[in-house]
TrEMBL record, chains A, B:
Alphabetical list of Gene3D superfamilies matching this protein: 3.30.420.40, Winged helix-like DNA-binding domain superfamily/Winged helix DNA-binding domain
Source organism per UniProt: Luedemannella flava
Pfam families reported for this sequence: ROK
Descriptive protein name: ROK family transcriptional regulator
Entry superkingdom: Bacteria
InterPro entries: ATPase_NBD (IPR043129), ROK (IPR000600), WH-like_DNA-bd_sf (IPR036388), WH_DNA-bd_sf (IPR036390)
Homology family: Belongs to the ROK (NagC/XylR) family.
Length: 394, 394
């Protein structure tokens, strides 16, 4: 029950609204900003002048101006000058990117993540290398990291590590690396891989305009990023979305979490490889099974169908609980879903209530495997977009 | 990405904030309002004057004013003059109440709901009787109804009716009844029983101050009212929260929804009565089994323990998905939970991730069986609290 903001708070809020608009939608004319944001022309002009003075946007004549009359200036985010760092720590790989305001990837680096390997140093090295090369007039406004607490041992088995410890180590290490170059660098914000992939697809991917979305991320285990009523469902301690540990098969196999018959024991990497009677680990091994099924390998086909049925089983449960308008299959689940869409849909039809399932769309991510990385960038920009002048001055 | 409100919108917003405060917290001094709402004294004074002129609040000297100096006036909602209607349609009973601003029940009526019985007329009769008796200076600001689409046949079996049709019939019938007395009566707002029970407990029950809450409502079937980040999770079409149709036992019994092994087939009224080898139906029959277990009936004890284990199973899944700070057991599940808390906790410990479960509190409703009715009243007041002067003038 908070009361209303002051005039200065309104101005700062509006600065954020305008900057967020061009960050998400790209270069936009003043005329479109006036119409879309419900502010008058002079207010848009004043806000744009403030953001220009802060070096966050610049104004240009439109390229295709052919009509008579005075053209509406185009407001463009300063994507080369203003940037954030984005990192993703997944089971088998580490990715890092420097991302300009507006979501433009300026530099990107990816390395495999070995068993029991240090995750901080490869990412910190990217920061040091990149910071040594960028111009003096650039501004780093934040850093975000998408983290999976799952890790792989030398024997190929994955285990659920201590998420809180990993997040702390990562944030401390990366913040320290950046602080060598940027005195006032804000601390690195860390969040779950699936939550950030959902944020990315909701902001600039397949789920733009959808307010009720479930993003399922397969990466050895299975996590969920959930958006309900346009906002992330993260729970009391930020640990929500652990859909991979929803028990679907009480008579099923033991799970690394200590429970039995968790969804990820039926649809994770192991489940598919075991059903296909194959060795190997990781995303490539999953893709190989799906490819073999496509080429007619009957064992692989049966494995894909079996996993697809369990995939549909859990999706039906989530559809009954959330009544989403879209479910997105990301990571390893992208390939699995595309190869077993028939089984997924059949289960959904049989198990979900008509009212809950009739408008749901099943999709794969627009941002492909970089959805978590893009989401980490959005997390990094959040502080700037909430209060542009304060964050830009820091 | 909406831009900021105008001055007039701010004033109206602040009127709603102030009125909501006294509606929820009860009579409040101007001094406390100034401190709690972050507005200055003169603004509070002006807002209170507007609300007083509209007949929504009145100001009084505090009863226990003993200190020296000028006392801070107490702002009190006009609970006898301004009221709403609340209705609850449950499987075996119908309830109706006239509820004053501030959540004070002024009149209340309850009738059993017979098999295949008309639900509109008993509630409409309450409206006509009540409206004939209230004073001419009273204002009805809205009506809300909590509805379960489950109904009972003459043989005692329940079935899932057409929720949309029931909601439409109910809204039309009750709106018509009220229109005989109130020309500008707003239409009756209808929502699911569990959603409204969750709203009531969150607003003025056991979950006040908790932003992540799951309310489980047992009434033959099982529904869920979910609050995440302080807001109701209702889904794309408003059909979310169907946790009773989460499949927990793939080898389980057929469910009325057409699926198999749904949670409600293991924890609903039938499940308990069948396990206890008893006839009978309804809430009393459930209570009888729980009472028998308490008195030492070994068959009833085994039945309660079995249902308790399945109750904990589903709660563990929901805790992994939502990371709530509180789970509330309402309707028939209240008695079942109280008698099987050991089994519920044991399952929760075994199946839910430590990070998701470590801060969760398991509770029963403060508002007992009237949680849905109180929630319907909150729904009815929503329009007034969003824009007090507009709604009060209607």
């Amino acid at each position: 029950m908070r009361a209303s903001p002051t005039q200065e708070e309104i101005r700062r809020h509006n600065l954020g609204v305008l900057l967020r608009y061009v960050h998400v939608k790209g270069p936009t004319s003043r005329a479109e900003l006036t119409a879309s944001l419900g502010l008058n022309r002079s207010t848009i002009g004043a806000l744009t002048a403030d953001l220009t003075a802060a070096g966050l946007v610049r104004e240009e004549l439109p390229r295709d101006h052919g009509r008579t009359g005075r053209p509406s200036l185009v407001v463009r985010p300063e994507h080369e000058r203003v940037y954030a760092y984005a990192f993703a720590v997944e089971v088998d790989r580490l990715t890092a990117a420097r991302v300009g305001l507006g979501g433009v990837v300026l530099d990107r680096h990816e390395v495999p993540r070995g068993p029991d390997a240090d995750v901080v140093e490869p990412l910190a090295a990217f920061v040091r290398r990149t910071e040594s090369a960028v111009g003096a007039d650039t501004v780093c406004v934040g850093s975000g990291a998408a983290v999976s607490a799952m890790a792989r041992r030398a024997d190929g088995r994955v285990y659920l590590g201590d998420a809180a410890e990993l997040e702390e180590t990562l944030a401390a290490g990366l913040t320290a690396a950046l602080s060598e170059f940027r005195k006032a660098a804000p601390p690195v914000a860390v969040r779950n891989v699936a939550d950030l992939a959902a944020l990315a697809e909701h902001t600039r991917g397949v789920a733009v305009g959808c307010d009720n979305v479930i993003y399922l991320h397969g990466d050895a285990g299975v996590g969920g990023g959930i958006i309900a009523g346009g906002r992330a469902v993260t729970g009391h301690g930020g640990h929500g979305g652990e859909v991979g540990h929803m028990v679907v098969n009480p008579q099923g196999r033991g799970c690394g979490c200590g429970s039995q018959g968790c969804w990820e024991t039926e649809i994770g990497e192991y489940a598919l490889l075991r059903a296909a009677d194959r060795d190997g680990t990781g995303r490539q091994a999953v893709s190989d099974v799906v490819d073999a099924a496509r080429r007619g390998d009957v064992v692989a086909q049966a494995a894909v169908r079996q996993v697809g049925r369990w995939l549909g089983f859990g999706v039906a449960n989530l559809v009954n609980i959330f009544n989403p308008e879209m479910v997105i299959f990301g990571g390893t689940l992208r390939d699995v879903y595309l190869a077993s869409a028939t089984q997924v849909r059949e289960r959904l039809t049989r198990m979900a209530l008509p009212a809950c399932r009739e408008h749901v769309r099943l999709r794969t991510p627009d941002l492909a495997d970089d959805a978590p990385l893009y989401g980490a960038a959005e997390l990094a920009f959040e502080r700037l977009l909430a209060d542009p002048l304060d964050a830009a001055a820091a």
